[in-house]
């Protein structure tokens, strides 16, 4: 592993980059990071059973997509909001006829809000379609697969391909300098204390466990393991 101002970087085969991601994830946990931003990175980081041009590409496109707006978070489609906007507009006219100008103004304002929310939802949905196509088919051919949130910034790129396999470069930067220094210390301990890292692998034990009537065994390695 190389450490620089831009982050913690490793160059090697797929197993090397998977191990690098696991070490950083575990180091973050050891220094006390336990928040949504951590789990977002832990979900995105490359896994043993994944492929960069399929799984990591899909996760990169999803992570880069436009966030949901108010309407989407409320579970309402643009059509739903437009229908509600029409209902509020009708109520506004009724209040005008009743000489209740204050209520009429409120209903009119609510109608405008729903129209704006419908437009926002429709725009976000259209942008996501464009983004997904761009990231999957264009950007990932030109730039590294990347991840970015308030906790870490990371990117992985295939830099060589030969008969004996592919070579990747995987770099992760912890955005907070103090936290980065703590993670660096933990990673240094791993380098000096752990002779062999047990890379976490996806195990299909559910079917066997069900057939034998036993609980599936706990997985070794990875961010939740203390195996050395």
Automatic annotation (TrEMBL):
Composition bias (Basic and acidic residues) maps to: 49-58, 67-79, 88-107, 198-207
Q: Where is this region: Disordered?
A: 49-107, 198-228
Q: Which InterPro entries match?
A: DUF5828 (IPR043868)
Q: By what name is this protein known?
A: Uncharacterized protein
Q: Which organism is it from?
A: Halorubrum tebenquichense DSM 14210
């Amino acid at each position: 592993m190389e450490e620089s101002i831009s982050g913690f970087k490793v160059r090697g085969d797929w197993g090397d980059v998977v191990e690098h991601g696991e070490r950083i994830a575990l180091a973050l946990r050891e220094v006390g990071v336990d928040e949504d931003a951590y789990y977002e990175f832990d979900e995105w980081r490359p896994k043993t059973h994944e492929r960069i041009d399929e799984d990591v590409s899909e996760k990169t496109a999803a992570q880069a997509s436009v966030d949901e707006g108010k309407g989407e978070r409320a579970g309402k489609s643009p059509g739903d909001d437009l229908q509600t906007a029409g209902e509020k507009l009708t109520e506004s006219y009724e209040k005008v006829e009743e000489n209740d100008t204050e209520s009429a103004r409120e209903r009119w304002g609510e109608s405008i809000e729903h129209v704006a929310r419908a437009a926002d939802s429709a725009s976000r949905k259209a942008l996501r379609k464009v983004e997904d196509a761009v990231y999957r088919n264009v950007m990932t051919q030109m730039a590294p697969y990347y991840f970015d949130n308030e906790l870490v910034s990371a990117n992985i790129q295939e830099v060589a391909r030969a008969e004996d396999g592919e070579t990747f470069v995987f770099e992760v930067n912890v955005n907070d300098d103090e936290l980065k220094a703590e993670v660096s210390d933990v990673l240094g301990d791993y380098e000096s204390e752990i002779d062999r890292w047990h890379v976490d692998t996806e195990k299909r034990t559910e079917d066997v466990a069900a057939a034998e009537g036993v609980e599936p065994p706990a997985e070794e390695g990875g961010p939740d393991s203390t195996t050395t």
